[in-house]
Amino acid sequence: MSSKIEIKLAPNSGFCFGVKRAIKLAREAAETNKQIVTLGPIIHNPQLVESFRERGVDSVNDLDQVTTQTVIIRSHGVDQDILEELKKKGVEIIDATCPYVAKAQELAKRLSNEGYPVVIMGDSNHPEVKGIRSYIDGEVFVIDNNDTLPDKIFPRLGLISQTTKSLEDFQQVASSLVPKAKELRIVNTICSATSVRQHATLLLARESDIMIVIGGFNSSNTKMLAKICHNIIETQHIETAVELQGEWFKGKHKIGMTAGASTPDWIIVNIYNEINKYTGSGSPYVSRIEEIPGYKE
Ligand code: SF4
């Protein structure tokens, strides 16, 4: 292949502030040699979860499995009832709930206390959404951008979003609610890390022949990046370098890469180096994410 092949990473790819914070707290906890578990995987990345398991920080899926001294609450936050149960169990709680998620929980509670039925745009099964929902005492609807509310006019409605949803979908839902409520209060709870990353990905997808989206198949924000890219150009969503296929790059000159908020740097670096090999682009081997063209924190 020709040496004119360009491989670029979208700015702001990889770990976000909330994930970095959660990982830092989990690493510090691991060093204490206490018995520690995380409630659910610390982040949506199986490779990093495994590396924590090797350091003695296991992940459990429900409260009955919490038999350790210390529990880490991950960046998605948890349901209020679960938090209460943990307190009753008397375990030490390390709360790594992302401040943006905590803010969404607080806003949900405030809207509900002020008498607004609350609409959450998000995935009803996502742990972050379950957590936010638990802060609402009154009426609540969880919808994605294709759902609709009951067929009536509400005197008032509040609208918030799961933090990792797309601004475009949020705008769509907001305008679909205008005819449904006499008073509509919209609070944009999409986190800035998410909107900045999505915008950077969109711009790179527009100038690329193919996009490689890197991150857990169960990561909401990575799936959202893949959706944005799919709407523009051929896109492959992968978790690790072993999934790359040489034929994807045949005839492609501009290769774009982006990664979700829970994708470790070393996975992005590996994939960049492998794409270099597949394409014969002649770009130098890199050992740090900062060396990949396009990288910006
Ligand atoms: S994507 Fe946003 S809300 Fe989620 S952990 Fe990262 S910074 Fe926090």
Descriptive report:
With 297 residues, the protein is an alpha/beta fold. The protein has 9 helices and 12 strands. It has a 4-stranded parallel β-sheet, sandwiched between helices. Helix 4 packs parallel to helix 5 and helix 7 runs parallel beside helix 8. The longest helix is centred in the first third of the chain and has 15 residues. Bound molecules: iron/sulfur cluster (SF4). The site of iron/sulfur cluster has 15 residues, from helix 1, helix 4 and helix 7.
Note the gap between the termini: 31 Å
Please state roughly what percent of the residues sit in beta strands, choosing from under 5%, 5-15%, 15-25%, 25-35%, 35-45% or over 45%. Answer: 15-25%
Are any ligands bound, and if so which?
Answer: iron/sulfur cluster
The CATH architecture classification of the largest domain is 3-Layer(aba) Sandwich
Number of strands: 12
The CATH superfamily title of the largest domain: 4-hydroxy-3-methylbut-2-enyl diphosphate reductase, catalytic domain
Number of domain units: 3
Order of helices and strands: EHEHEEHEHEHEEHEHEHEEH
- Radius of gyration (CA) equals 21 Å
CATH class of the largest domain: Alpha Beta
Largest sheet geometry: 4 strands, parallel
**Average pLDDT level:** 93
Number of helices: 9
Q: What does the overall shape look like? A: flat
CATH overall fold name of the largest domain: Cobalt-precorrin-4 Transmethylase, domain 1
Could you name the ranges where pLDDT drops below 50 across 5 or more consecutive residues?
none
Name the helicity range: 25-40%
